[in-house]
Write a structure and sequence with these properties.
The chain is an alpha+beta fold. Among the domains are: 103 residues, Rossmann fold (3-Layer(aba) Sandwich), CATH 3.40.50; 68 residues, no CATH class. The chain contains 12 helices and 18 strands. A hairpin with a 5-residue loop joins strand 8 and strand 9.
Length: 356
């Protein structure tokens, strides 16, 4: 079985260096990549996943070492050399993906490009049982995280793909688990924010922390630097030398001093400055963006099978406007309601209406 599989794969493997122009790869159900060079392998997988006709195809990666980022785009990674049992384990998972993909109908031609790609994301999760779409930290991303699989498909800058995922979450096609919360600029929604401490009087950045000196004899209070005369201490008001702390003077507290307006204060004003769009705003005005890992919901499962998104098609209109549901969904809701009635011992009413 393994031999036949590899022979079938080898028929298109010879064209992998120029796979974007070959028609043989379109006939393949599984893509096998033997990778020695990480850069070549990463670029090859990205190019494959960026093409709608190859996006859903299971990719089996064979390599003689572990590559850190490859598993985000490859379905299975086999470290070479491998025994027959390892081959069977990997191939069984790959064939399970193929089996689920064969049961899906082609995408309707009426779908726009963006909607079609959203369906592809749902079908990718559908065909990979238990697959979790996880964010990866990326300093080049506008939100500090990226979803490599979705970013490659939509061919956008890192972080921009999050908007498409949020759309699927809002449509309840994905279930989520919180990974992180980020402060983002309210204007450009970028995480590159610099938190700055300012003088609350003149809003200058030129502030320093310095001890306060209190001269007992003349009651003058000022910064320690005003009293310094080399290694000696001298009051700038009465010109008397200060010899002993606790006798001639004390240092009641260290405070912040503004170099520009000479005011002192204990708490600076906190301000945010966006390094991307140069917008200045108060910390409480920052937007909070949630980064979640995602799985396919029951609604998403049906959307993947039917190749429809909420708001498209007769079923979606009936559900939205009239509260109509498919039979299996209604049966599940009915089962839950019956369980609640039994548990909490309250009555419920069920009516059946036939329309002719």
């Amino acid at each position: 079985m393994i031999y036949q599989f590899l022979v079938q794969i080898n028929r298109v493997r010879k064209d992998l260096d120029d796979f974007s122009h070959t028609t043989d790869l379109d006939k393949a159900d599984v893509i096998l990549l033997y990778v020695k060079n990480e850069a070549w392998g990463w670029n090859t997988i990205k190019t494959l996943r960026a093409q709608s006709q190859h996006f859903l195809k299971p990719i089996l990666l064979v390599a003689d070492q572990n590559f850190e980022n490859m598993p985000d785009l490859a379905d299975e990674v086999l470290i070479w050399p491998a025994d027959e049992e390892a081959w069977f384990q990997k191939l069984s998972r790959v064939f399970a993906i193929c089996h689920k993909l064969r049961g899906l109908a082609p995408l309707p031609e009426s779908l726009g490009e963006t909607s079609a790609k959203k369906i592809l994301v749902l079908r990718f999760l559908y065909s990979r049982e238990g697959y979790v779409l996880r964010p990866r930290r990326n300093f080049q991303s506008s939100v500090g995280y990226t979803f490599p699989l979705v970013q490659v498909l939509f061919q956008v800058e890192p972080g921009r793909e999050v908007a498409y995922i949020e759309g699927l979450q809002e449509a309840q096609l994905l279930t989520t688990r919180l990974v992180d919360k980020l402060n983002v600029c309210p204007r450009c929604e970028h995480t590159q924010i610099n938190y700055r401490e300012l003088c609350p009087h003149c809003h200058s950045l030129n502030i320093n922390e310095e001890a306060t000196v209190h001269h007992f004899r003349c009651a003058y209070v000022g910064r320690e630097s005003e009293f310094r005369r080399g290694v000696k201490m001298e009051c700038p008001k009465c010109k008397r030398e200060l010899r002993h702390i606790g006798v001639d003077y004390d240092k009641p507290v260290e405070v912040l001093w503004c170099v520009d307006c000479n005011h002192n204060f204990s708490e600076p004003q906190l301000s945010c400055f966006c390094l991307v769009c140069a917008h200045t705003f108060a910390p409480e005005d920052a937007f909070i963006k949630q980064i979640n890992e995602c799985e396919l919901s029951q609604e998403g499962y049906r959307a993947a099978e039917e190749a429809t998104l909420p708001g498209f098609g007769l079923l979606s209109i009936l559900k939205k406007e009239l509260g109509f549901y498919r039979r299996e969904v209604f049966i599940e809701y009915l089962r839950i309601e019956a369980f609640r009635c039994r548990r909490y011992r309250y009555p419920s009413t069920f009516a059946r209406v036939n329309l002719k």
